[in-house]
Amino acid sequence: MAFCSLVSLFLLLLFTAMVSAQLLSTFYDTSCPNALSTIQSAVKDAVAKESRMGASLLRLHFHDCFVNGCDGSVLLDDTANFTGEKTAFPNQNSLRGFDVVDSIKSQVEAVCTQIVSCADILAVAARDSVVALGGPSWTVKLGRRDSTTASLSTANSDLPGPNLDLSALITAFSNKGLSTTDLIALSGAHTIGQARCVTFRNRIYNETNIDSSYATSLQANCPSVGGDNNFSDLDVQTPTNFDNNYYVNLVNNKGLLHSDQQLFNGGSTDSQVKSYTTNSDQFSTDFAAAMINMGDVDPLTGTQGEIRISCRKIN
Ligand code: HEM
């Protein structure tokens, strides 16, 4: 009897170890020692060519992790008999950088065939993008594998939209095991990149918690009708520097999205936003920690999933 219990305990432990295999920063050290430097130089080139690409690559990792975990699902193309996530409302006509990911993947395949997952490429490219734009660095944990599935409906339900209020933002992040501190720190990603008029039109015409001259200047490029795809910078001050100005904007009622300004609108998150305006080191530390937490959301590991050859399609 005691022996049977020991055996079942052993099997349970083995099973747990198999399904919850840990991500490790050293994962490719022997199987593909040049993986990280290959990704880093490709990201540097892409950001040097177009600084916004750093923002677009960072966002891809976020949109990957929030839909059934960081598993490369966001990269899968639709086909006649496969529906990916690219046509989800938050993604369609919005996500970009897929060609750059293809180019990184082919450079990585050239140094080690079918070793490095697309999900890990996104995680590393996100970090390298932040660094290329002057932000903090962190050690990326690796060993994610790629999904053989995608979920359009989960992309639509789980990716937070720009019209959410604070409580819904907190819930969307807590549904992924991320704290309110993570939410506030990760939102600092909006210190880089751009948003389309359609995502902030209501705010600049109808909301009152917005600096009026800021709203007026945005209206010039975002008419009340039409111009849906006209871009504005998410950070009005330093759109291509990864810094803490996003939070300075918020305390001045210059958040571009409704969801941005929700973080500083008289609620429970005001104090953390305010502290980041004067303590950029704290923001850097919290952002790096939150990126690691986000990268840990439900990865496929061990023998789960696959290593895709092309990030756009399952093998
Ligand atoms: C808190 C909830 C969030 C909401 C509601 C949100 C929403 C949005 C929206 C609406 C846009 C503009 C999309 C468009 O115009 O097509 C955008 C852009 C962006 N988001 Fe977020 N976002 C959130 C969190 C995050 C997080 C956690 C990250 C990364 C860690 C991130 C990174 C970015 C970046 C870098 C851009 C600019 C992309 C580019 O220029 O290509 N966002 N976001």
TrEMBL record:
<feature type="site" description="Transition state stabilizer">
    <location>
        <position position="59"/>
    </location>
</feature>
<dbReference type="GO" id="GO:0005576">
    <property type="term" value="C:extracellular region"/>
</dbReference>
<keyword id="KW-0732">Signal</keyword>
<feature type="binding site">
    <location>
        <position position="64"/>
    </location>
    <ligand>
        <name>Ca(2+) 1</name>
    </ligand>
</feature>
<keyword id="KW-0106">Calcium</keyword>
<keyword id="KW-0575">Peroxidase</keyword>
<feature type="disulfide bond">
    <location>
        <begin position="197"/>
        <end position="222"/>
    </location>
</feature>
<feature type="binding site">
    <location>
        <position position="191"/>
    </location>
    <ligand>
        <name>Ca(2+) 2</name>
    </ligand>
</feature>
<dbReference type="InterPro" id="IPR010255">
    <property type="entry name" value="Haem_peroxidase_sf"/>
</dbReference>
<feature type="binding site">
    <location>
        <position position="160"/>
    </location>
    <ligand>
        <name>substrate</name>
    </ligand>
</feature>
<feature type="binding site">
    <location>
        <position position="73"/>
    </location>
    <ligand>
        <name>Ca(2+) 1</name>
    </ligand>
</feature>
<keyword id="KW-0873">Pyrrolidone carboxylic acid</keyword>
<feature type="domain" description="Plant heme peroxidase family profile">
    <location>
        <begin position="22"/>
        <end position="315"/>
    </location>
</feature>
<keyword id="KW-0560">Oxidoreductase</keyword>
<dbReference type="GO" id="GO:0006979">
    <property type="term" value="P:response to oxidative stress"/>
</dbReference>
<feature type="binding site">
    <location>
        <position position="85"/>
    </location>
    <ligand>
        <name>Ca(2+) 1</name>
    </ligand>
</feature>
<dbReference type="InterPro" id="IPR002016">
    <property type="entry name" value="Haem_peroxidase"/>
</dbReference>
<feature type="disulfide bond">
    <location>
        <begin position="65"/>
        <end position="70"/>
    </location>
</feature>
<keyword id="KW-0964">Secreted</keyword>
<keyword id="KW-0325">Glycoprotein</keyword>
<feature type="binding site">
    <location>
        <position position="238"/>
    </location>
    <ligand>
        <name>Ca(2+) 2</name>
    </ligand>
</feature>
<feature type="signal peptide">
    <location>
        <begin position="1"/>
        <end position="21"/>
    </location>
</feature>
<keyword id="KW-0408">Iron</keyword>
<feature type="binding site">
    <location>
        <position position="67"/>
    </location>
    <ligand>
        <name>Ca(2+) 1</name>
    </ligand>
</feature>
<comment type="function">
    <text>Removal of H(2)O(2), oxidation of toxic reductants, biosynthesis and degradation of lignin, suberization, auxin catabolism, response to environmental stresses such as wounding, pathogen attack and oxidative stress.</text>
</comment>
<dbReference type="Pfam" id="PF00141">
    <property type="entry name" value="peroxidase"/>
</dbReference>
<dbReference type="InterPro" id="IPR000823">
    <property type="entry name" value="Peroxidase_pln"/>
</dbReference>
<feature type="binding site">
    <location>
        <position position="243"/>
    </location>
    <ligand>
        <name>Ca(2+) 2</name>
    </ligand>
</feature>
<keyword id="KW-1015">Disulfide bond</keyword>
<dbReference type="GO" id="GO:0020037">
    <property type="term" value="F:heme binding"/>
</dbReference>
<comment type="similarity">
    <text>Belongs to the peroxidase family. Ascorbate peroxidase subfamily.</text>
</comment>
<protein>
    <recommendedName>
        <fullName>Peroxidase</fullName>
        <ecNumber>1.11.1.7</ecNumber>
    </recommendedName>
</protein>
<dbReference type="GO" id="GO:0042744">
    <property type="term" value="P:hydrogen peroxide catabolic process"/>
</dbReference>
<feature type="active site" description="Proton acceptor">
    <location>
        <position position="63"/>
    </location>
</feature>
<feature type="disulfide bond">
    <location>
        <begin position="32"/>
        <end position="112"/>
    </location>
</feature>
<feature type="binding site">
    <location>
        <position position="71"/>
    </location>
    <ligand>
        <name>Ca(2+) 1</name>
    </ligand>
</feature>
<feature type="disulfide bond">
    <location>
        <begin position="118"/>
        <end position="311"/>
    </location>
</feature>
<feature type="binding site" description="axial binding residue">
    <location>
        <position position="190"/>
    </location>
    <ligand>
        <name>heme b</name>
    </ligand>
</feature>
<dbReference type="InterPro" id="IPR033905">
    <property type="entry name" value="Secretory_peroxidase"/>
</dbReference>
<keyword id="KW-0479">Metal-binding</keyword>
<feature type="binding site">
    <location>
        <position position="69"/>
    </location>
    <ligand>
        <name>Ca(2+) 1</name>
    </ligand>
</feature>
<keyword id="KW-0376">Hydrogen peroxide</keyword>
